[in-house]
Design brief:
Blueprint lengths: L1 E3 L5 H9 L16 E5 L4 E6 L4 E4 L1 H8 L4 H9 L4 H5 L2 E8 L10 E3 L7 H13 L3 E6 L6 H12 L8 E6 L6 H19 L3 H7 L4 E3 L2 H9 L9 H48 L5 H32 L1
Parallel strand pairs: 1-7, 2-5, 7-8, 8-9
Antiparallel strand pairs: 2-6, 3-4, 3-5
The structure holds guanosine-5'-triphosphate and magnesium ion.
Length: about 325
């Protein structure tokens, strides 16, 4: 899942990863609704509306109707009394089905609109995060770590329903900086990572190439269009890292999520049972059988979670 503020190059990066210009990319806010990109024998876009209906479009029609800066959408927004929110009330999310080999193995990408567009939009994005294996957070080197981005990252990491997922940070648009500024921005980013992740400089340094990548998405896309490779754009290295993640780490993340989910359920059940026991004691009614049943339930769930944790560790050890 690809997130980040407006205009950071999220859609450009996805196009590079897909090797084709499928997503709309423009200088003004562009991506209007989250779009899931998945494998399909034939190209089609399904737009899911809030009333539960679905509209099928070609990719071209979709770009016309659902890019924030397209003429059609600008007119719609005017029609809806200039309220983008009102217009956004209608489409919920879209699915692009497209025949690309990379997507054949059940891999899906989600391109999302810029941050904080509407609170409802942000909530929706958080709900998609739960379904994703990894988050690609796109920042721009010429506007690194704005207040909005920090707040969003903070919410992302501390969201109550958030199950820990790997975050890859792509710092884009380095071509917009002069050589001296690059050094300064890199130091600044390093400090920000140290503060935000509570790590020391050495650990932050190690993040580069593993979870942090300096990229030149525009150059990468231009290279692709000219039939050149991605050397020197940082996206070759990130593509390799992503392949590696998909091959080796996705399963681990999946298992880890299942384990965390089991632990979460255990905590929920335990707290509900404790509440119930407390009420039973307060009313001083001797529901011994019910109390015993609830105690057994907690023991049973705890045992199941222990078994899941044991299996998880076995599989992780086997995976090396
Ligand atoms: N100079 C420079 N411009 C870039 C780079 N990557 C993307 N852009 C430009 O930045 C603008 C925004 O790119 P998008 O890919 O549409 O950005 P986005 O994050 O998807 O934007 P929203 O959909 O509006 O949230 C476009 O004009 C791109 O051509 C880069 O590496 N360098
Ligand atoms: Mg976009």
């Amino acid at each position: 899942m690809i997130v980040g503020d407006f205009n950071r190059g999220k859609s450009t990066i996805l196009n590079v990863l897909l090797g084709q210009e499928l997503m709309s990319m423009r200088v003004t806010a562009t991506t209007a609704i989250p779009i899931f990109v998945k494998y399909g024998e034939e190209e089609k876009v399904l737009v899911h509306k809030k009333d539960g209906s679905t509209e099928e479009l070609s990719l071209e029609q979709y770009k016309q109707r659902y890019s924030l800066n397209s003429k059609v959408v600008q007119n719609q927004i005017k029609y809806y009394y200039k309220s983008v929110e009102k217009w956004l009330n209608n489409p919920n999310f879209a699915e692009l089905h497209y025949p690309i080999e990379l997507l054949l193995e059940g891999i899906e990408f989600i391109d999302t609109p810029g941050l904080n567009y509407t609170e409802e939009g942000n909530q929706k994005i958080f709900s998609y995060i739960q379904q994703s294996h990894a988050i690609i957070f796109v920042l721009a080197a010429d506007q690194p770590f704005t207040h909005n981005e920090k707040e969003y990252l903070h919410n992302l990491v501390s969201h109550p329903n958030q199950i820990k997922k790997p975050i890859f940070y792509l710092i884009n648009k380095w071509d917009k900086l002069g050589e001296e500024d690059k050094e300064e921005i890199r130091d600044f980013l390093m400090e920000e990572f140290c503060q935000y992740l509570d790590i020391n400089e050495n650990e932050a340094e190690k993040m580069w190439g593993d979870t942090v990548f300096n990229v030149y998405a525009k150059k990468a896309l231009d290279n692709l269009k000219q039939g050149k490779n991605l050397d020197g754009t940082g996206l070759k290295e990130f593509s390799q890292r992503l392949d590696n993640f998909i091959l080796n780490e996705r399963l681990k993340t999946e298992l880890c999520q299942a384990l965390q989910m089991a632990k979460f359920v255990k905590i929920q059940v335990e707290s509900k049972v404790r509440e119930r026991l407390f009420i039973l004691k307060q009313t001083e009614v001797e529901y011994e059988a019910e109390a015993k049943y609830l105690q057994d339930l907690v023991t049973n769930i705890s045992t199941q979670v222990e078994i899941i944790a044991g299996k998880y560790n076995e599989i992780i050890n086997d995976l090396g």
